[in-house]
Amino acid sequence: MRWLSRSYLTLVYLLLYVPIVVLVVFSFNDSRTGYNWGGLSLRWYDSLFNNHAMVQAMWNSLWLALTAATVSTIIGALTALALHRYRFRGKRVLNGMLFVVMMSPEIVLAISLLGLFLLLGLKLGYVSLLLAHVTFCLPFVVITVMARLSGFDERLPEAARDLGASDFTMTRTVLLPVIMPALMAGWLLGFTLSMDDVVVSTFVSGPSYEILPLRIYSMVRVGLKPEVNALGTLLLVFSLVMLMLSQRILSRSKQ
Amino acid sequence: MTKTLLSLSGISKQFDGKTVLDELSLTIDDGEFITLLGPSGCGKTTLLRMMAGFEHPDEGTVTLSGVDITQTPPEHRPLNTVFQNYALFPHMSVFDNVAYGLKMEKRPKAEIAERVEEALAMVQLEDFVRRKPHQLSGGQQQRVAIARAVVKRPKMLLLDEPLSALDYKLRRTMQVELKRLQRELGITFVFVTHDQEEALSMSDRIVVLKDGHIQQLGTPREVYERPANVFTARFVGQTNFFPGRVTKIEGERISVDVFGLTRDLNKPSFRVAMNQSLHVLLRPEDIRVLAPDDTDGVAGKIVERNYKGSTLDSVIELEDGSHVMASEFFDEDDPTFDYSIGERVRVSWVDGWEWLLAEEGDEPLTDEEELAADDAEH
Question: Hey, is B35 helix, strand or coil?
């Protein structure tokens, strides 16, 4: 029984990690074809960074993720505060609608956003991408911040007011520092979501602003180039760093 | 000569249509330790929050040293609060927590450092300045909360059940400490509790609250020995209620028949008529348990005995089925003094220690009050 459960677990992990390991290993492969080993080399990394369109797409993606995460964190934090602090008509509906956006298939969101942008006559490009990304990042930020707020001691703002702080000073010195870990976790979540989105971006991006996931997608369509392996490895390292960062923030905030 | 510090007049407050405070008036003197005592839901916390400025009355005014502060927000009131669960800022060190109020006043750095140190020394926490609240025990957090509130030298300190989260022994220590602090600082303390023992041992005056009304306002001794009504008598301490009947009225003296015994008493402050029924109240420690062959007292038998260390508490069932609680001190002459269950005794009491109350319309306690009274005892 013991060996059975062990080999089952091994199988699961193999399934999960073999493709990733293959990708990383082949990104250092000197051979032009993807299936035979030609020795160690960094040539695909070199050619990747010399590919001007690719580098541009990477910068575009980073900038888009940065702005989308920041905008959705600001809006999301304010929404979470409002939902937490005030009682008003339609609060439950508003709360439920967040989950609708989160749970509905991405393709639905993509089509409806495209329809909306066309209706408004908005030129597809950075702005349309930003709006779309903020839309699908928002519920994640709101839910992360709300979770933090639900454990927030309502007496803390009162204690601050009691000691002479105005509402604004209280927010700056007590409320924000206490919910800061949730804001950072929400921001990181938004950043990663925006960084690797394909479906929505396919619909709402235009030729003026090409982003990385779409660039990779179009590269792969004409045949798998080893450059893609190099790019995938870089993205993998980047995601791992982000993951560790967010874990650290969350574990520190639990103290 | 006492000076009025804070006065509440005609205060009413409703939450969602439910009346929490009903035209309540109260004046608090400068320098006194006053306790708001009552079961949960009696309005004591709302009253305290109104003094702090977190709630505003629907009707009535709050004045502090003659200035109307009814609508003044909390940050502009010279009062500070110690919260029930301390409400320490979790992201700040002990020092920064205590310094917060002074920083809000934009005091110079040197003065802040000096006053924070002084406040922490007062609660014996000088060695913990760099710690974060989560690294402190409950009692230490409590001390930080007190230091944080007194460092601003408020005119009045509001304490919202500050000891309820501590264990029994620590609570006793903190009670003594709070009294010491109050003496040293000379500031007015308004203390909210549902623990009658705590109220009795700490206060200069007690306000007994129920359903948004003041039931009684007086010194601990007045509240305990001369309760104004049945509620106060039951809520504060344990009491035997004996049924009495007026048999004679003569000038300032009346005769009352209790279990067939006739007692001559001073006329109570309420109106009495011949043959009127009334309550004769006796605290367990006023009861005398006599030998079965004694001529005085009422016959009964022991149904319960509890050894309490300094006292022996017993319950005696009388022949009519009613129960009497008695609490007797151990006698130096008879250290082995004890009862056995079922032992026949006679029950009497120290003459003149009775307290009379008129019967009220709503005699039996509701379940809620019974629970609240139980809570308060434990």
Answer: strand
Residue A154 DSSP symbol? T
Do B215 and B209 meet the contact criterion of CB atoms below 8 Å apart?
Answer: yes
Whole-angstrom distance, CA of residue A104 vs CA of residue A144: 19
| Conformational region of residue B135, where left means phi above 0, alpha means psi within -120 to 50, and beta covers everything else | alpha
State both tokens at B69: 């502060």
Residue B366, pLDDT > 50, answer: no
- Quote the ipTM score: 0.80
Angle in degrees, CA B366, B370, B372, rounded to 5: 115
DSSP run (H or E) holding B213: strand B213-218
Per-residue pLDDT tens digits for B368-378: 444 454 554 44
Which of A153, A155, A166 is nearest residue B75 as measured by Cβ atoms? A166
Chain A residues touching residue B147 (CB < 8 angstroms): none
Please report which helix (H) or strand (E) contains residue B261, including its range: strand B261-266
pLDDT tens digits, A31-40: 777 667 778 8
Separation between Cα atoms, residue B27 and residue B14, nearest integer Å: 21
| Residue the block writes with tokens 């699908």 | A136
> Which of B49, B81, B157 to mutate to test binding with chain A, by most A CBs within 10 Å of its CB?
B81
Name the amino acid, one letter, at B28: I
Return residues 155-214 of A near B (CB < 8 Å): 155-156, 158-166, 169, 173-174, 177-178
CA proximity to A204, closest of A121, A124, A138: A124
Q: What distances in angstroms separate CA B188 from CA B33, B181, B191, B202, one per listed residue?
A: 6, 11, 10, 13
Question: In this predicted structure, what is the pLDDT of residue B335?
Answer: 63
- Nearest by CB: B87 against A156, A164, A166: A156
CB B74 within 8 A of CB B58: no
Do the Cβ atoms of B57 and B229 come closer than 8 Å? no
Angle between helices B109-122 and B94-104 (to 10 degrees): 130
